[in-house]
Amino acid sequence: MSTPPRRELGARVADALSSQTLNALIGIAGIALPVVAWASHQSGMKDFLLGVETVLLVLLVANHAWLRSIYIQLRRANDKNMADARYFARVRTQLEGELIADFGEIADGHLQVYASEVPRLSVLLFKVLIESDTQPKRVLAADLTTSPDLLTQRREYLAVNRRLIEGGGTIQRLFICWQHDLIKPEFARALLELVDHHRSLGVQCAIAVRDRLRADQAVDFVVIANAAVLVEEEQGDNDYRRGRSSVYFKQVERWAGRFEGTWGHGSDSAPFALAAYESAIRPLLVAGAWDEQAAARVVGGL
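The structure corresponding to this sequence follows.
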């Protein structure tokens, strides 16, 4: 489970300035000062109090304008218009509480979603990158690949991948696979077909053996430019109806560095590992005479 991000000073200041207590005190002062000024017989004191009143009024207007700019304004439903006002009020209160909690997380740069929402959210993140001025137009994707066929079913996601690349963007995708899967003919065939499909879109592909990665490297995540990262925090066991993921809009560079460290460079890089795997495994698949020991030696040398 992820820990909620620590609230920043700006958020705490905003909460303080919007508190009912502070606004009540300002309101009381706004009423009291003119009364005291009117009752005062000293002209200097009267001018001072009216000056303070003016400053308070200006600050109150400025605070109101600022709060309108940082908070969402929503109309509240009228309970009396509903068939059962008390029942509706309880439902509304529950839903409003959940909505406010979600917006509180977003304001802190964090959004948590269930796995069933990930495909839609992934497409949204790509579309915003394509349509905005955000740079670089780059995506770094690390996929914990246990069922390659699942990734071919996300047609809208693959379509938006193509759009990004056709628009001049780049995508690096790292397939992280278990060693025992890589030596199975069914998995190897499905994986290489998946690689071929992604390459046809213009995606740069690579593989890494999950058994040899550190725990912090064997994570399913997608880095969008330097702006956001989508992290799968609870595996859905190949079922998009289960599991949970998060989008973080802060400290994205840490995830980009983690990806680049796993991707590597030169003969020890993940693209080189994929090239070595392909050169040995494709002939075995084409010949139709699978040699598991030969495949195991290839994977062992990656």
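Residues 1-6, 236-241 have pLDDT under 50 and may be disordered.
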